[in-house]
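Need the bound structure for protoporphyrin IX containing FE, inputs here:
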Amino acid sequence: MKGTIFVELIKMAEDAFGEDVVDIALDNANLDNGGAFTTVGNYPCSELIKIVTAFSELSGISSEKLQRMFGHWMMKHFVENFGGSFEGKADSFSLLEAVDGEIHVEVKKLYPSAELPAFSTDRISDDHLVLTYSSPRPLVEFCHGMVEACLELYGQTAEVARSPAPHPANATNFDIRLNG
Ligand code: HEM
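Answer from helper R.:
Posting the output first, comments after.
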């Protein structure tokens, strides 16, 4: 997993809990590298999970909630740093439909070592999309946060219902119905 993800997670926690709490959490997490992450490095996703768990233990906020918050944080980071990917995307559904075949394809070209999930989409109607997310990594709550942040980016609100997908392996359906 890209170092940028770790660097941004630590920034989010510094913003939310302060630097002292973050230092204690990184100590508590028993990390392989002692907690020194660079944006250009690559680290196992299991280390990210250890950090989230340590933040959760110190803050009392569940790991699930922290992953969701982090989805929102990363979306803001991507908007600020990869603005071009959002051009021509008129709404959240257009953006979500472009992640697998377009946005993450470009990410993979830029960072061949990136470990990306797989998405497929089914547009049921103008205001109803099913997004199927599949990843061997335990990041479904992070994905949920990204989906929520996509909606917010376009000033849209929706009911988002999540359920295990029958296939492929490790897949989750996000059933997204726009309000109003
Ligand atoms: C400009 C927009 C985007 C950029 C630049 C981007 C880039 C990235 C990068 C660099 C990673 C980390 C890969 C690694 O660490 O090896 C990642 C992971 C991920 N991205 Fe995106 N992404 C974008 C949009 C989205 C959107 C809109 C979604 C919406 C659902 C999404 C869902 C995810 C998820 C869930 C992961 C975690 C990896 C996993 O689940 O296995 N991304 N993305």
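Comments: Helices lie at 3-17, 19-28, 45-59, 63-81, 92-110, 140-153. The chain has a mean pLDDT of 97.
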